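Batch 3, record 17
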Amino acid sequence: GAGVSQSPSNKVTEKGKDVELRCDPISGHTALYWYRQSLGQGLEFLIYFQGNSAPDKSGLPSDRFSAERTGGSVSTLTIQRTQQEDSAVYLCASSWTGLADNEQFFGPGTRLTVL
Amino acid sequence: AQTVTQSQPEMSVQEAETVTLSCTYDTSESDYYLFWYKQPPSRQMILVIRQEAYKQQNATENRFSVNFQKAAKSFSLKISDSQLGDAAMYFCAYRMLTFGGGTRLMVKP
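Prediction for the assembled complex:
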């Protein structure tokens, strides 16, 4: 496809379960970003990848959160032992390079609800 | 740490009129980019406009323009001839790493 895609679009899980969120960036984009948007809030930067490496993991809120990117393309954000405060929309974005000043193209997000 | 503040949680404008959304930020850097993004109910973030800090000229994109005051660390967005399709959440961002809390814009017909 032409844009950034994310799956699933919605995920409901029980507290304590692990979840995986997937992001497919635009083909050729080397940089990939994950953000979290809590209800009625702005975006919170989580992590970004340049190729397969993650030079900046400073935004991950706890060690329950991890992310990987393989083949310089698809990325997976994993949340272990989910908590209710993890409920949010998780947005993925990609750009041509890893500079934070480049325009990023966003996916539609995954809405995570932890019961 | 950089911070971005949008002091107007909600704004309302009559169709065809002009509205200005405010944004202030804090940074010790001298060279950076600022962004305004629009988020309609579909959740898809869409770039509205981008400003390079070293450029004194204010960026414009059709009906959208910014008033960039570097010394005051202010970056407001002006929407002229407002249209119903402009209704959305608007987020100001510093270097795509730090976002403001957003302003919900309502457009009245």
